[in-house]
Design goal:
436 residues, mainly alpha, Arc Repressor Mutant, subunit A, 3 domains, 14 helices, 7 strands, 4% strand
Length: 436
């Protein structure tokens, strides 16, 4: 509990943890990296999130960044708690909390209206990043004064949709915030669009890094799967495939995995950045849409290339497969990661491996369902192309014979497809959760 002048000062738990952490480390300037690693250890957030937290704490303490009494900014390093008179006492659990204060009169004796200047600020157009953060401060203050009254006074004045979106977004950072509904209120579509824009803008750099990590992880998993399959194929009894098939299958697997990882990773990154109240549903939809788009692009490119280069017209899949596996990855990832508070999930150590394993299991089940439905994945597609090409040595029939099937049968397809899905889910999560 934070008490000032006999009144409890509400702070969201993450900001309270930050204040306690700075007080505990008050004998040194704490680096921003150490703050992220300890206070936001389970999520990834932007630098602006830390700056916003410090401003909120300063405002709650009545501190001034220009002449700090409590928290000083250490240029290009971090922050330090500088108030010298800190005493630690046992908590007897008894606190006399005063009622919230009423608005103070001004010098002329009239009551000051604290809402109007703040409403003007949140409905204005920010010219730079500093003004954007000032708008967020104003929105937090409006929540402290009363969310319902702020929305009533906001009405439908110019840029009210943006202001509603800003109030909706900052309610997660304000302990005293009330509900900010969108449906049933003025301009719901414009408000939702503004909210998406605000959250994507603040998380753009992190989302881009996670997208690249997912693409790299998926590609690496594809290389591993392709190379392993090539080695087994070349070593299988009765196989005519040479060792040169190993790098070829590795390259094909890597390309497919990278494209799939890019699509699903983009869906994950956007979903986590935008959705906070319906995260699981957003991850499933984002993964499915991203995977479906990536798979459709691969499907179109494969069909066009085969028809144009070698005159083959095959029913090559991609779009449906990407949608199913992307959705399965989103479901597994959502179930394995708890709802992050104010950032994008970033589990560490053993927890990270657990999340990767659960997501891999979900992807493998999705891939199994596809193979049972007769939808070929990467290995099955390679076998189809090899069958249709005269003299090809890349047919996967020897793999079927290894497990007792006379050809590339349903059991072989199911095993290979399940392995592909599991490897993809594993690489995807290990890539997207990598902390910079």
């Amino acid at each position: 509990m934070l008490v000032r002048a006999g009144r409890e000062q509400p702070l969201i738990p993450r900001y309270f943890d930050l204040l306690v952490f700075l007080i505990e480390r008050r004998h040194e300037a704490v680096h921003r990296r150490d703050i992220f690693d300890n206070v936001w250890k389970d999520v990834l957030v932007s630098d602006s999130a830390l700056s916003q937290a410090i401003r909120t704490i300063r405002r709650t303490l009545g501190d001034d960044s220009r002449e700090p009494r409590f928290i000083r900014t250490v240029s290009r390093h971090g922050y330090r708690f500088v108030f010298a008179e800190v005493f630690e006492e046992d908590d007897d659990g008894v606190w006399a909390i005063a009622e919230a204060s009423t608005p103070l009169p001004n010098e002329a004796g009239a009551a000051v209206d604290p809402f109007e200047p703040l409403l003007q600020r949140v409905t204005s157009v920010a010219a730079d990043a500093i003004q954007e953060e000032e708008q967020r401060d104003a929105a937090e203050l409006l929540h402290a004064l009363g969310t319902a009254e702020a929305l009533r006074r906001l009405g439908i004045r110019p840029r009210h949709a943006f202001a509603r979106a800003l109030l909706r977004d900052t309610r997660w950072e304000s302990a005293a915030a009330g509900a900010v509904p969108i449906l049933g209120e003025p301009a719901p579509i414009a408000t939702a669009g503004a909210l998406v824009g605000i959250r994507l803008h603040r998380a753009a750099r992190i989302a881009a890094a996670r997208w690249a990590g997912a693409s790299f992880g998926g590609g690496l998993a594809g290389v591993a799967g392709g190379a392993t399959g090539g080695l087994i194929l070349a070593a299988a009894p009765g196989s005519a495939a040479p060792l040169s098939v190993v790098p070829i299958l590795a390259a094909i697997g890597g390309c497919c995995g990278a494209v799939g990882g890019a699509g699903v990773g983009a869906g994950f990154s956007v979903a986590e950045a935008v959705a906070r109240s319906q995260r699981a549903a957003a991850l499933v939809c984002g993964g499915a849409i991203g995977g479906g788009l990536a798979g459709s692009a691969v499907e179109w490119l494969a069909r066009w290339s085969l028809a144009a280069l070698v005159g083959l017209h095959l029913d090559v899949g991609g779009g449906l497969e990407g949608l199913v596996i992307g959705g399965a990855a989103g479901l597994g990832y959502a179930l394995a990661t708890s709802r992050p508070d104010g950032g994008l999930a970033a589990p560490r150590g053993g927890r990270r491996l657990t999340v990767a394993g659960i997501t891999a299991a979900a992807c493998s089940l999705g891939a199994l369902a596809l193979t049972l439905a007769g939808r070929p994945l990467v290995g099955g597609t390679i076998h189809l192309i090899a069958q249709a090409s005269l003299g090809s040595q890349a047919m996967l029939t020897p793999l079927g014979r290894l497990i007792g099937e006379p050809d590339f049968g349903p059991i072989t397809r199911a095993l290979i497809g399940t392995g592909e899905g599991a490897l993809f889910g594993l690489g995807l999560v290990l890539g997207i959760t990598r902390r910079p």
